[in-house]
Amino acid sequence: MEPRGIRNNNPLNIRKSADKWQGLSTLQEDREFFQFVSMEYGWRAAFVILCRTYYGKYGLKTIRDIVSRWAPAKENNTEAYIRHVSDYTGIAPNKVLGSPKEHPTDRLRNGCSRERESAPSGADAERLRHGLWPVTLTSTSTITDVRL
Question: What are the extents of the domains in the chain?
Answer without folding.
Answer: 4-145
